[in-house]
């Protein structure tokens, strides 16, 4: 029997999560059975959707049970295999959760191809966040030359690719990020036409100045007050892919003015398309094209990305809590010490 460590959900957060909502435990693994593989986790992806898994509110996926292992995608090394498609030493991607070791069915594990880019990109620009940006833009946003595309959290793994895809389509890219350092990176390194600091105190005026012809595509992954400022600028026939609402995940009190009638009226009058999506809806038909299209571009440096790597599984709770308030800079990844 092998041993390792795991992080479980100790309690459900009432509002913003804290490190006290998590617990580090020892882990014992049985020998892999026929069709299974034993894995040593190398890297763990931390993503905003995990906040939703901590709640038992109705959602598109089942919540993590209290005392259950926190969910998450990882890059692993196969240490033992009883599946014909895998051998010891293979590098794979799997949904092991927050742990150092796992035994899984081989059918739930996938070989990794990063086309020569660093291995960690399989959790970021060439993984779920990258595919979220790619599928949302390709299938819902559909930017055209000369249009204006706006995205919040523009220095993050989804937003950073959204803007670069907009530029590849010949559109203008306007980002929103937190702080001068992130805004400078978005504009200077990623090539956005503008990046606005949502902490400036003048975001409404800054948006109007940066989008004089309005906004044709707004890629929504934040929600909250930023949406309130974006919505008046949406043009007729604009498109709004909605993949996340990080500003609202921990909101408890939703009482207040009912703005839904005005919102629906404006959507009708301006013929705005608002389409929520979960990236895996499009994976079967479009994931291979995503990898073939972006993999070589990432490896060649044509598509830029940034990663924020934290060492140690035990530091995952603190890093995750910080991510929800914007403390990370780039795709947040835990380098697991197993």
Count of DSSP strands: 15
* Helix-residue proportion: 25-40%
Order of helices and strands: EEEHEEEEHEHEHEHEHEHEHEHE
Task: Compute the number of helices.
Answer: 9
Biggest beta sheet attributes: 7 strands, mixed
Description:
This protein has 338 residues and is an alpha/beta fold. The chain is 27% helix and 26% strand. It contains 9 helices and 15 strands. The chain has helices at residues 49-53, 128-141, 157-168, 180-189, 203-210, 225-230, 260-270, 283-299, 316-324, and strands at residues 2-9, 22-29, 36-45, 74-81, 91-94, 101-105, 110-111, 148-151, 172-177, 194-197, 215-219, 234-242, 273-276, 307-311, 331-335. Strands 3, 4, 5, 6, 7, 14 and 15 form a 7-stranded mixed beta sheet that branches. Strands 10-9-8-11-12-13 form a 6-stranded parallel beta sheet, with helices on both faces. A two-stranded antiparallel ribbon has the order 1-2. Helix 2 (128-141) crosses helix 3. The protein starts with a strand and ends with a strand.
């Amino acid at each position: 029997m092998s041993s390792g460590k795991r992080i479980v959900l100790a309690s459900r957060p009432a509002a913003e999560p804290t490190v006290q909502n998590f617990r580090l435990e020892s882990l014992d693994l049985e020998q892999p059975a026929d069709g299974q593989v034993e894995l040593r986790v190398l890297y763990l992806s931390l993503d905003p959707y995990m906040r939703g898994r901590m709640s038992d509110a109705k959602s598109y996926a089942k919540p993590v049970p209290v005392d259950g292992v926190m969910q998450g995608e990882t890059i692993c090394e196969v240490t033992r295999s009883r599946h014909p498609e895998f051998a010891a030493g293979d590098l794979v991607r799997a949904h092991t959760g927050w742990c150092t070791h796992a035994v899984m069915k081989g059918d739930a594990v996938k070989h990794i191809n990063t086309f020569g880019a660093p291995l960690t990109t399989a959790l970021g620009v060439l993984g779920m966040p990258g595919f979220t940006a790619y599928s949302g833009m390709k299938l819902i946003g559909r930017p055209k030359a000369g249009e204006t595309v706006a995205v919040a959290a523009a220095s993050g793994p989804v937003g950073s690719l959204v803007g670069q895809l907009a530029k590849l389509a010949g559109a203008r890219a306007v980002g929103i990020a937190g702080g001068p350092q992130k805004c400078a990176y978005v504009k200077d390194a990623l090539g956005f036409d503008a990046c606005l600091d949502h902490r400036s105190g003048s975001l409404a005026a800054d948006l109007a100045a940066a989008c004089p012809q309005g906004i044709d595509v707004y890629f929504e992954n934040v929600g909250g007050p930023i949406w309130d400022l974006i919505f008046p600028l949406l043009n007729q026939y604009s498109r709004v892919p909605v993949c996340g609402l990080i500003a609202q995940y921990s909101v408890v009190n939703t009482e207040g003015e009912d703005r839904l009638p005005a919102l629906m009226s404006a959507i009708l009058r301006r013929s705005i398309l608002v389409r929520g999506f979960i990236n895996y809806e499009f994976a079967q038909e479009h994931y291979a094209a995503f990898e073939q299209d972006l993999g070589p571009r990432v490896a060649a440096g044509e598509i830029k990305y940034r990663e924020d790597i934290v060492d140690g599984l035990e530091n995952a709770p603190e890093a995750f809590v910080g991510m929800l308030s914007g403390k990370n800079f780039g795709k947040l990844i835990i380098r697991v010490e197993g």
